[in-house]
Write a structure and sequence with these properties.
mainly alpha
């Protein structure tokens, strides 16, 4: 029981009908070229980015020493430790 009515462009086993194939045919070549163009654009942007980043030279940047770690401070929260918790009805 479907909520939406079945499209006439698809069969009951979800295959394209001849009408859908005919309707999509004028756009097939345009869609293929658009897909190739978009894929080429994405790959070229990625390659340019990797090339630009790999050319960076960080040899002149001085790396500072590791900062000193502050001394360990005990937990100062308001929650009680598990050993201090009491169960109602017990003394």
């Amino acid at each position: 029981m479907g909520l939406l009515p079945r499209s006439s462009y698809w069969t009951k086993d979800n295959r394209q009908t001849a009408a859908l194939i005919r309707a999509r045919q004028p756009y097939l070549v345009k869609n293929i070229f658009t897909g190739i163009a978009l894929t080429t654009l994405v790959i070229s942007i990625y390659a340019y980015t990797i090339k630009a980043v790999s050319q960076d030279d960080f040899s002149d940047v001085q790396i500072p020493d590791a900062p000193e770690q502050p001394p360990h401070t005990p937990h100062t929260g308001t929650a009680r430790a598990p050993a201090q918790l009491s169960v109602r009805g017990t003394k």
